[in-house]
Amino acid sequence: MNHADASAAHPRGPAAPRGLRAWLLLGVLGGAASCSQQSAPPPPRASSAPKEAPADSEPISLEINGFNYTDLYIDSFEVNGQSGGNLFVSSTTSGGGGSVCCTRWIPGSQLPLRVSWSRDGKRWCEQEVSLPPSPPAAPRHLGVHFFPDGHIEAELTEDYPDLKLALERDNPEERRATGNTINDERMSRCKDAKQPEQAR
Fold this sequence. Notes:
Layout: H1 3-9, H2 18-39, E1 60-68, E2 74-79, E3 82-87, E4 96-105, E5 113-118, E6 123-129, E7 141-146, E8 152-157, H3 184-187, E9 189-192
Parallel strand pairs: 1-7
Antiparallel strand pairs: 1-4, 2-3, 2-5, 5-6, 6-9, 7-8
């Protein structure tokens, strides 16, 4: 079919003036742009919930280092079920504990730690502790700090953690000879350990 035949088969209406055609074209393009903007999804909202680690993150081992700034000896403490050992009362140069290997941590995880402890092996307390949001690039230590007011702080460090409080002590098991106080139950859940059933 030639151009003349095409024109005959599909006759055109009267041509619009050039200025009007330009305005119509701008109106159509503007409408299309606003439609594409309206159909774009809204930006994601930031969530305040703790982040779980990416599925492909490999857990790393951290040495547990305990610091006891409270008034009395801690017989045993654990982080997420992993033993951290016992803690003497801190001094001006020592946190009161040694180094225990190891607990596992998944990089990127911001889930709280579950710290539990007992001073006599009979009554246990537990507290959830959050890690700071920006860990170092290559953490190797998990510092757990028991403060006199009953709160606990945890930190990830590349080197052995620093003392947060340098306090005098009377002896390794008591801060003072008399008048020691303990605030374990102010900020923690505490209960007596289950006693083993008597043999029948």
